[in-house]
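Look over this record before class:
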Amino acid sequence: MLRLFLRTGLSKGCFFTGACLSIAACTVIEAPYHITKGAVTTAAYAVEGSYELAAGTTKVAYRIGKFTYHVAKAPLQWPLTSNIETIDGLPPKETIRQGRVKTAPYTVKGKTYYPMSIGEAQTYRATGTASWYGYETSRNKRGSMTANGEVFDPEGLTAAHKYLPLPTHVKVTNLENGRSIILRVNDRGPFPSDRNPSSGERIIDVSARAAKLLGFYDKGLANVQIEVIQLQKG
């Protein structure tokens, strides 16, 4: 049986995206996970480890508790889920192709956003409004690409954040009903829309499935707490 454990206040031995870092404090999820390599597809990307995507073309799946997380590189011709103009000063697809997205600055509607470093993200915790996204991508018959080049799946356990490194795993708790879930941050957003500029003040966009599991799909918004977690093989 797969089990999920939370530990806080550890001084060392915390793992973040496959790297062992010594930090003052962090939250660790010891998650027995299974890696499942899928069929090779078309582009020039590969998956290394449990949730890092690099050169080659492979799909990967890993488990945290009772949930399975699927990761796959999207074909470069697919449209992005958001209107990112540049990443690291280059056209987004070129930066994605070069694998330079993780903490790279990016521009949306003329505004440049500067993601936090991996070190800064270690102790990140925030409270604010969450929304869900993905309905607008349904008109893309081929599919849509997240800001780090992964396939966007409304039924996946994923999220978009303006400043966290890509990818990062976060524990999201709906403060209105106490429900929590671990999500893989692999996209950028939410950004202010022309019709609703205040939407840019939201701190996270989650997938449709995540919103359902957190209990705010119908409502559309929820007050949540976000906490970066570290994955370890249990």
Summary: The helical segments are 92-98, 118-121, 208-214. The longest strand covers residues 221-232.
